[in-house]
Specification:
It is a single chain. By secondary structure, the protein is an alpha+beta fold. It has one domain (9-109). The chain is 30% helix and 39% strand. It has two helices and four strands; from the N terminus they run αββαββ. Strands 1-2-3-4 form a four-stranded mixed β-sheet. The protein starts with 8 loop residues before the first helix and ends in an 8-residue tail after the last strand. The relative contact order is 0.19.
């Protein structure tokens, strides 16, 4: 059963960071952040590094499911719009710089009852 609470995006992001995101960040080179929740759509920003090996669709589906199943405020979501930021290290003048070289928007359906991967 889904119960809808008033949204506090910062609190939800903090709770997600402590419970889930730290594992993804440290072990897998992936992080995510809730941007907003509006009209049944979850808006996520996902940052990928070279450690992450899954394709973009699998990534979007996995994280959409993770966010939806972990937070009761998001359990009635109908979909998830994802902004993917892919970072690479570029060697220039002996310094490594992180640079976002591609931004990609995807729409992925999410379900309360089953994981979509």
């Amino acid at each position: 059963m889904c119960i809808v609470f008033s949204m506090d995006i910062q609190k939800i992001n903090k709770r997600h960071y402590i419970a889930t995101d730290m594992y993804y960040r440290i072990s897998l080179g992936l992080s995510s952040k809730l941007l907003k929740y509006e009209n049944g759509i979850i808006y996520l920003e996902i940052t990928l590094s070279k450690k992450w090996t899954k394709n973009y669709n699998a990534t979007a589906a996995e994280l959409a499911y993770s966010w939806k199943s972990s937070h009761p405020e998001l359990c009635k979501a109908l979909g998830c719009k994802v902004l993917l930021l892919i970072y690479v290290k570029i060697l220039k003048d002996n310094f490594y710089r992180k640079m976002a070289f591609r931004r990609l928007m995807m729409l992925t359906r999410v379900s309360c009852s089953e994981k979509t991967t």
